[in-house]
Specification:
Blueprint: H1 2-20, H2 30-37, E1 45-48, H3 54-57, E2 88-94, E3 109-116, E4 122-125, E5 129-132, H4 138-150, E6 157-163, E7 169-174, E8 180-183, H5 191-197, E9 209-214, E10 217-222, H6 223-228, E11 241-245, E12 250-255, E13 262-264, E14 270-271, H7 272-278, E15 287-297, E16 314-319, H8 324-332, E17 334-335, E18 340-345, H9 348-367
Parallel strand pairs: 1-16, 7-11, 12-18
Antiparallel strand pairs: 2-3, 2-6, 4-5, 7-8, 9-10, 9-11, 12-13, 14-17, 15-16, 15-18
Helix pairs in contact: 1-9
Length: about 375
C-alpha cells in the first residue's frame, strides 16, 4: 500500500507540471510578451528601453490627455492703476470763494459720488462737460480734471478717488480658499499675487494646475512650475479669469506591483521609476525585475509616413531593472497619461507553485501516518 502511494507521488512530480501547463497568475510573464511580439501577425511593437533608445522615444508624438497649453512670460508693470471704462470715480471739489459756481456759503466742498467712466473713456463734470480720462492713472486724471476745472472756477481744488470696475478686476474662479472677483491694486498684479489674495491653494488638490482665460485664449501651467521659475509669474489684465484645478492625468498599474490601481500624476513629469514608487514597487518573491512593461497606444498619425514614431500604434516598452543601464533609463523614461505599467511575474513562480502543491500533498499523507 505504502509503496503504491510512493509511486503515485513520484509520478505526480512529473505529471503535475505537464497537466497544469502554466498555472493561473495575476500578471503576465515577460517571456510571453516577447514571444508574442515575434509573431508575424503581432498587433503591437516591442521596444527595449535603454540609454541608446531614450533620445528616439523622446521625439515621438505625445499620447494620452496632455494639454499642450502655452504660457505667458512675466514682465514688469506699472505700480499704479489705469482708468478703464466701468471704473467709478469720486470727485471732491473745494472752493473757498464767496460767489462759487459749485459750493455755497455754508458748504465749501461738493462731492460727486461714483461717477462712472463711460465706454468711450469720458466722465461728465458740471460746467466743464465731458473729459476723457481713459488710460490715465488716477493722479494724471486728477491733474487733467483740475486744469479743466480751473478754466471755469480758478480757485477750485479737486481730489479724486477710484473704485475699480470690471475692466480693472480679475476673477479667481476655483481651487482657492476664497474664490471671487478681485480688483487689481495696480498694473504689477501677478497670478501668484491673485492666488495669495484668494487665501492660497486648497491642500486637497493634487499637483494643482493653473488655467488663465484671457479673451478667447486659454493659457496653462502648473503651480509647481511657477514656484520653481518665478520669471513665469505673469502679470494679469483686467477681465482675466484664473482657475486652479487638480491634475487630471493618470496612469494605471497592474500585475505584480504593490498596488493595482489608477494613479493621478503627482508632478508635471513622471518617470518609470516614479511610477513604480507610486504603485508600491515590486511584490517580493513574485515580480520579475527584468520585466517591467509599459503599454502605450499612439494615434494613427504617429505611424504615418514621414513622422518620427513607432512601427505600430500599440507599443510595449520593456525595462530591465536588474541592470544598471535599466535603472538609469527607468529614471529618464517618461510615463505618458493613460499608460499601463505592468510588473510581470517571474517564470520561477510557476515551479514554486507546483513545488508547494506537491509539498502539501506529501504533508497530508505524512500527518495521516501513511508515509
Amino acid at each position: 500500500m505504502r509503496l503504491s502511494i510512493l509511486l503515485f507521488a513520484a509520478a505526480s512530480l512529473f505529471l503535475l507540471p505537464a497537466a497544469c501547463g502554466r498555472l493561473p497568475s495575476g500578471a503576465p510573464v515577460s517571456e510571453d510578451i516577447v514571444r508574442q511580439s515575434a509573431d508575424q501577425d503581432a498587433n503591437f511593437a516591442l521596444y527595449s528601453v535603454n540609454r541608446a533608445f531614450l533620445p528616439t522615444v523622446a521625439q515621438w508624438p505625445a499620447t494620452g490627455k496632455q494639454e499642450r497649453l502655452n504660457w505667458i512670460g512675466a514682465s514688469n508693470g506699472a505700480k499704479s492703476q489705469i482708468i478703464q471704462p466701468g471704473d467709478k470715480l469720486t470727485l471732491r471739489i473745494w472752493d473757498s470763494s464767496d460767489n462759487s459756481l459749485l459750493t455755497s456759503v455754508e458748504q465749501k466742498m461738493v462731492q460727486l459720488q461714483d461717477v462712472r467712466v463711460a465706454a468711450n473713456g469720458t466722465i461728465f463734470m458740471p460746467y466743464v462737460g465731458n473729459v476723457n480720462v481713459l488710460g490715465l492713472t488716477p493722479d494724471l486724471a486728477r491733474e487733467k480734471l483740475q486744469d479743466e476745472l480751473e478754466t471755469i472756477v480758478p480757485s477750485a481744488q479737486l481730489q479724486l478717488d477710484m473704485a475699480e470696475g470690471r475692466n480693472n478686476s480679475v476673477d479667481l474662479v476655483s481651487g482657492v480658499a476664497n474664490p471671487g472677483t478681485y480688483p487689481m491694486p495696480n498694473r504689477n498684479f501677478s497670478v501668484m499675487g491673485l492666488i495669495s489674495m484668494g487665501g492660497g491653494i486648497g491642500p486637497h488638490l493634487n499637483n494643482p494646475q493653473i488655467r488663465l482665460v484671457r479673451g478667447r485664449n486659454i493659457y496653462g501651467t502648473s503651480v509647481d512650475n511657477l514656484l520653481n521659475h518665478p520669471q513665469l509669474d505673469t502679470l494679469l489684465r483686467g477681465g482675466d479669469r484664473v482657475f486652479v484645478e487638480e491634475d487630471e492625468r493618470y496612469f494605471l498599474s497592474f500585475g505584480a506591483t504593490g498596488k493595482e490601481d489608477l494613479h493621478i500624476f503627482s508632478k508635471d513629469e513622471l518617470s518609470a521609476m516614479d511610477a513604480m514608487s507610486i504603485s508600491g514597487g515590486f511584490q517580493d518573491g513574485r515580480a520579475d525585475p527584468q520585466g517591467l512593461l509599459v503599454l502605450r497606444e499612439y494615434d494613427p498619425e504617429a505611424v504615418a509616413p514621414g513622422v518620427r514614431g513607432p512601427r505600430q500604434t500599440r507599443v510595449v516598452f520593456s525595462l530591465d531593472l536588474a541592470s544598471a543601464d535599466g535603472l538609469f533609463s527607468a529614471r529618464q523614461f517618461q510615463i505618458n497619461p493613460g499608460d499601463l505599467v505592468i510588473a510581470t511575474e517571474s517564470p520561477i513562480n510557476d515551479a514554486l507553485t507546483v513545488s508547494n502543491i506537491i509539498g502539501n500533498f506529501f504533508g497530508v499523507f505524512s500527518r495521516a501516518g501513511i508515509l
